[in-house]
Amino acid sequence: MNRGAEATESSTLPLDDGDIHVCQDGPRDAPALLLIHGSASSARSWDPMVPLLTGSHRVIRIDLLGHGRSAKPADRSYGLPDQARRVGAALDRLGVEHAVVVGHSSGGAVATALAELRSDLVTALALVNTGPSLDAFIAPESAVTGPSQWPPTDEQVRRLASSGFSRAGYQIPEELLDEVRAMTHHTFTTTMRATRAYLEQRALPDRLKVLGKPLLVIFGEDDRRWRSSSASDYRAVPGAKVELLPGLGHSPLLEDPPRTATPLLAFTAIHAVRVD
């Protein structure tokens, strides 16, 4: 499966409560960089970023349970601490002892939960357009389709996805719309509620400031899902670095990968742990 640094190694890890799909790119002896996707998405959302990161990292992407090519059971917990536990178990299976963890949108909340649960694994955190609290949430104009209408129509999927992008002329990749259609209604709604419950319990800056982990926050300034001004809330975390990206929306990793990679690589150059 592993044909060197240029080949993506795709594998499925059987965990106690469901199979987890994992992608790996880059030299296996380079510092580990874990990328966690957001709600109704998958590891594929990071595809444009991967070539920019593999020159200096072992890049690991995980489909969270209920998403992508991972299992979608109806009788398992999708709470963020449980998702984080599975991510930690997957890294253990891969022999990863330390990683800089990057999360996009709700993936940043999963990354935070992982740092809370497995401080030993997480050397530093980078959050990309992750709302710090529910106060920052911008409510959608229309509700998500109900179970009687599942899977959603193409028009419904595109309307749902449209607020995730703001760059003029940007075309949403069809494969990312497919990831929404591939979810069950149960996993779609339950994972969304799980993120809300985690943020209701405690805002992310309050969680992060007691962890003592280096923190980078990247935020597309034209985000239509979370107020970009809320990025300043993360300054409550000692030493946190906040980067606003003008002209980009909720998904800068897709809208402008090079501009998103620049502050991330500068951050990991300082905080990544090299493999002995």
UniProtKB/TrEMBL annotation:
It comes from the Bacteria. Residues 31-257 form the AB hydrolase-1 domain. The keyword Hydrolase applies. Keywords: Hydrolase. GO terms for molecular function: hydrolase activity. The keyword Protein transport does not apply. This is Alpha/beta fold hydrolase. It comes from Streptomyces milbemycinicus. The lineage of its organism: Bacteria, Bacillati, Actinomycetota, Actinomycetes, Kitasatosporales.
